[in-house]
Amino acid sequence: MSWIAENLWLTVAVPVVFALAAATAGRLAKSLAVGLPMLSAATVLLAGVAVVRASVAGAEQKGASLEWIRVGELSINVGWRADGLVGVMLVVVGLVALMVMVFSLGYMSGDRGIVRYFSVLSLFTGAMSMMVISDGLAGLFIGWELVGACSYLLIGHWFTKPAAAAAAMKAFLTTRLGDIGLLLGILLLWREVGSLDYQAIFSAVGTIDPETLSVIAVMFAVGAIGKSAQFPLHIWLPDAMEGPTPVSALIHAATMVAAGVFLLARMSPLFDAAPVAQELVLLVGVLTALCAAAVAAVQHDIKKVLAYSTISQLGFMFAALGVGAWGVAIFHLTTHAAFKAMLFLCAGNVIHATGTQDMREMGGLSRKMPASFATWMIGALALVGVFPLSGFFSKDKIVHQAFESYPAAGVLLLLAAIITAYYVIRATILTYFGAYRGSGHVHPVGGTMIIPVAVLAIPAGVLGWFSAAFFEIIAAPSIKFDLVIGAVSTLVALTGIAIGALIYRRGVEADDHLKEKTRFGWEFLVSGFRFDRLVSAFVVQPTILFTAWAYAIVDRMIVDRSVEGVALVSKGLGHGLNRLQNGDTQWYVSLSLMGFIFLFSLVTMWERIAAIFSGGG
């Protein structure tokens, strides 16, 4: 494993270099614009597979570290590591990125910005790899910020659409709030430990004051909440659906939203020593899982159903992290990446075929698009948690751990699971069953849009059976299957499916009936509990006012006047010196003579002047 570990930096360098090459050479040859990014994703995937295989074989897990910055005694290192967790995350990132790129060959064909699109996808892959392989918080934070910047570019890919540009800005600004918390946590940790390397931090956890440690852990939690779209910083993710659908599959399955979960898992020794922060993560996770599932149950936009579903499933992962089961959280992250990326790509197929995202204008697609329907069903049942698909095993372990630590949390997660089954069967019926309600013909989709979905169906279907090996690879405590919890989870899933099937047996008319019966409740859920309005009133508008005030005070009164003052002084000195240089030879001779007399007097009277200043005069 030594060669792999020593050269793992290539998982960052190759995507970044290929992104730049695709952006420049791609203007001359489009094959380079799409080929190089796909090669970079394949590089990340193969590196991840190699690290996982080495971990299974028990090879020594080494990395490398380089000094990045040195100022006096201050030194910041940037390095990489090659443990099982790194390998698993690289496989997830590489596989989903590669499948998204292949899918984009068909979905984005003819797009005028395809060169820019694939270049940013490659850079996005490299940024996520940097965050994953880093052996300290310095490299992680650089990758973290690059992921945010790339997501801004991808969500706003169609920047000429006002909605897409606004969504990109909203995502960028909302996640910055979380990033401020993370940065403060990193700075506090650096002050306490004197290093940003994981090993040094984990070794020093026991020496940090408990209250300070809790504050640091809470700051890290805030960063993760923003990046993983958890309550109350979840508002950016549904609007991010304005970007291309393949981007949604990448952002919402394997990269940006996974970053927060990965951060908390990597920093688990810190959170194990800060129970207050752990309980905060649990509370946020359970609340988000339940509320986001409820909002997903009333959406008509198929991508928004999946967006709120992602928020909810991330809530399950946060709940696992909140009870200290970081390995279970990573397991669900991995299974979720497969089936949720597949569901988004299936949604991309039906959107491409029908020309709409509104499920009320779909229907009957199971007969018209059988391949997409079959793969959708695999992903949908995995999301619900139906045996024997992967989602059953990972979600079951989260519920099991929650019941053992906080039974109330386990009950609420089961309720969220019922709602999950309900909105999944609702979306399935509205999209694939009944009569086709669209106005145009259903267009066929090409092989490049079917093959990636079929590939992702494999891990979505079978990954759960390898949970024991998975926990061994990432060196996390193994969680045995609990028959009672498994039976209850299955019953819950079937109950949700039955309720959804019963209500929507009449198809889209059920929505009108429910809306009529529960008008206020329906509208309240459709608006996402009107949380956008609350955030706008109490966060966005005050921030805009404060920014305007700060601009007026700091920029106008301090910065501008300082610059203007320097300009006036320079101008005055220039005019004064200009007067001395008037071209009159007699004036120059007089000035020289006056200077000579002054210097001669100063030299001859030096002793007297020195005596006066020393007090001896």
Mean pLDDT: 84
For the biggest β-sheet, the strand order reads 1-2
Distance between the termini: 82 Å
Regions with little confidence, pLDDT below 50 for 5+ residues:
none
Please report the number of helical segments.
28
Number of strands: 2
**Fraction of helical residues:** over 70%
Coarse morphology: globular
Largest sheet: 2 strands, antiparallel
Structural class: mainly alpha
Element order: H for helix, E for strand? HHHEEHHHHHHHHHHHHHHHHHHHHHHHHH
In percent, how much strand structure appears in the residues?
under 5%
Cα Rg = 30 Å
Task: Describe what this molecule looks like in 3D.
The model has no long low-confidence stretch (mean pLDDT 84). The chain has helices at residues 2-6, 10-25, 30-56, 84-107, 114-133, 137-155, 162-193, 198-204, 210-227, 236-239, 245-251, 256-266, 268-272, 275-296, 302-322, 326-354, 365-368, 370-384, 390-405, 407-432, 451-462, 467-473, 483-503, 509-517, 519-526, 531-580, 585-604, 606-613; strands at 64-71, 74-80. The protein is built from 28 helices and 2 strands. 75% of the residues lie in helices and 2% in strands. It has a two-stranded antiparallel sheet with strand order 1-2. The chain has 617 residues and is mainly alpha-helical.
